[in-house]
C-alpha cells in the first residue's frame, strides 16, 4: 500500500450562526470533536490547535468574518487518499453542528440526524449558506512581503487571516495579477501593517474552492480599521467587483476572514484532558 507523504497545513474556519449557539458548539467541540479527532488522526497529524476568533470588528461582516474559531492541523498524510477511507469508528457529528455553524438553514431541530465529518465538510454554498471552509496550504508561507525578522518582543499581534476565491467572471491569472498589482503594494506600504505573508491554497476539501490565503498583522482592531476600511476607500473598483468596497468580493463565499491572536487558545494534544465540568 503506497502513501504519498506530503506535509501540509490545513485551515478550518468555524462560523457561528448566532451567539445563542456558541455554548452548544463549544460543548460539541470539547466533549466530542477533540477526542474523536485525536483518536482518528493522532498518529499522523503533528499539530491540532484552536484559535478563538476575536470579536468581529466594525464593518467586518463585509469581509466575511467567521465568529467562532480557526482550527489548524499539520498533516503528515493526506487523509483523503483511498487508503485512508476505512475507519473503525465514525465521528459523532449531529446535523445541528452544521446548523450552529451556519452551514445549513437554521430551521427545526435536527439533533437526531447525524452526518459524518466528511459529509459535514461538503455543505454550504449551494444551499445559500456560507460554505464550510477546509483549505490545505503549504506548511510554510510562500510569499513574505513585509515584517521579516519580527519577534515576540516587538509587540502584540492582531492577526487578520483571509481566504480569497476569485470570481468566476475572471481567470485565476487575472485574479492573481490584481492581488500582486493592487493588494500587495497597498498593504506592503501601509504604516499600520507589521507583518504580511501569503500562499496559494493547495487543496480544498470544504465546500468552497479558495485560491489564496493571506495573513496581515496589526497592533489591534483600530489599526486594522484604519488600514482595511478607511485606507482602501481610494482603491480602484475592478470591473468584476461583487461589492462596491474593498475587498470587492462576495463576503463569506469569495472572501472569508478570521480575526485572531498569535497564540493558540487550545493546543489539543498538550492541553486537552477531557470534558471536565465545573462542580
Short description:
By secondary structure, the chain is α+β, with helices and mostly antiparallel strands. 23% of the residues lie in helices and 24% in strands. The chain is globular, with a radius of gyration of 19 Å.
Notable features of this structure?
279 residues; alpha+beta; 6-stranded antiparallel beta sheet; 5-stranded antiparallel beta sheet; 6 helices
Textual characterization of the structure:
The chain is α+β, with helices and mostly antiparallel strands and 279 residues long. The protein has helices at residues 22-41, 95-101, 117-120, 172-189, 221-230, 268-271, and strands at 5-14, 45-52, 69-77, 133-138, 143-146, 158-164, 195-200, 203-204, 212-218, 255-260, 266-267. The strands form 2 sheets. It has a 6-stranded antiparallel β-sheet with strand order 8-4-1-3-2-11. Strands 5-7-9-6-10 form a 5-stranded antiparallel β-sheet. It is globular and about 55 Å long. The termini are far apart.
- Low-confidence parts, pLDDT < 50 over ≥5 residues? none
Largest sheet: 6 strands, antiparallel
Secondary structure: number of strands: 11
The ordered H/E elements are EHEEHHEEEHEEEHEEH
Q: What is the arithmetic mean of pLDDT?
A: 92
Strand-residue proportion: 15-25%
Strands ordered across the widest β-sheet? 8-4-1-3-2-11
SS class: alpha+beta
Helix content bin: 10-25%
> Rg from C-alpha positions?
19 Å
Shape: globular
Number of helices: 6
Distance between the termini: 49 Å
Amino acid at each position: 500500500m503506497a502513501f504519498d507523504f506530503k506535509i501540509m497545513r490545513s485551515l478550518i474556519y468555524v462560523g457561528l450562526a448566532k451567539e445563542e449557539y456558541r455554548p452548544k458548539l463549544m460543548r460539541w467541540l470539547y466533549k466530542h470533536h477533540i477526542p474523536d479527532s485525536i483518536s482518528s488522526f493522532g498518529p499522523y497529524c503533528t499539530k491540532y490547535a484552536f484559535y478563538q476568533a476575536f470579536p468581529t470588528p466594525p464593518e467586518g461582516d463585509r469581509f466575511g468574518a467567521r465568529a467562532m474559531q480557526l482550527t489548524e492541523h499539520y498533516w503528515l498524510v493526506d487523509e483523503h487518499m483511498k487508503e485512508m477511507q476505512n475507519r473503525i469508528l465514525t465521528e459523532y457529528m449531529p446535523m445541528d453542528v452544521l446548523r450552529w455553524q451556519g452551514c445549513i438553514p437554521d430551521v427545526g431541530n435536527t439533533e437526531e440526524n447525524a452526518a459524518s465529518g466528511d459529509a459535514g465538510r461538503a455543505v454550504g454554498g449551494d444551499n445559500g449558506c456560507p460554505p464550510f471552509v477546509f483549505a490545505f496550504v503549504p506548511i510554510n508561507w510562500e510569499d513574505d512581503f513585509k515584517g521579516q525578522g519580527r519577534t515576540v518582543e516587538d509587540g502584540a499581534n492582531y492577526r487578520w487571516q483571509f481566504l480569497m476565491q476569485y470570481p468566476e467572471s475572471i481567470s485565476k491569472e487575472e485574479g492573481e495579477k490584481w492581488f500582486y498589482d493592487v493588494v500587495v503594494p497597498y498593504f506592503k506600504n501601509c504604516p499600520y501593517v507589521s507583518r504580511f505573508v501569503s500562499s496559494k491554497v493547495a487543496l480544498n476539501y470544504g465546500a468552497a474552492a479558495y485560491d489564496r490565503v493571506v495573513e496581515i498583522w496589526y497592533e489591534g482592531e483600530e489599526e486594522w480599521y484604519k488600514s482595511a476600511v478607511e485606507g482602501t476607500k481610494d482603491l480602484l473598483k475592478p470591473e468584476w467587483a461583487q461589492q462596491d468596497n474593498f475587498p470587492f468580493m462576495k463576503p463569506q463565499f469569495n472572501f472569508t476572514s478570521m480575526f485572531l491572536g498569535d497564540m493558540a487558545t487550545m493546543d489539543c494534544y498538550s492541553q486537552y484532558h477531557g470534558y471536565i465540568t465545573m462542580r
